[in-house]
Amino acid sequence: DKGYARLVAGLEDQVIQILCPHHLTWEFIYQYSHELGHLATRADDRFFNPGYYSWIEESLCGACSVFVTELIAKTPHFTDAEVAACTEHIRSNYSRSDVDASWFSQNAISLKGGTDASPLTRKLAGWIADRFPEGAFLPDNRALKDAPLNPDLERYLSCWSAECGREENVADALRDLVGF
Fold this sequence. Notes:
This protein has eight helices and two strands. By secondary structure, the chain is mainly alpha-helical.
């Protein structure tokens, strides 16, 4: 019984649909924050166009889920069991170790070929969340909206970095990871 979430974008409105069969509040928040990441970048305007890198966006949206879920786990509004469940979910699905240039090189083809969240994008999401603590990556997620699509990954990341408007940003961290 796995749930799902998706952003359904129309010409006049956007709807986030969430199905959480276990009706756990933290799962709704986790799924919603991921989809809100897609909405912030207006993924619907770019999806399936040449020069769109879904693995980047899925990783950023995963980082949104990690950040928000870890943040809510610190509030007094959740039981110890809920905190344990969401903490275990993040720990087991967003491994934060061994993401480096070698890891990227070994997984680049699989990452670039995917269109949905995967174990690889979740690992990269954990890396982003760790590298940019306390949600520092969120402005970069929004800046992705204005980065022009480009089939040349190096140029795409450079343009995105310029849109970020700050020295330390996810685009430059990914450039370093990829080896540009």
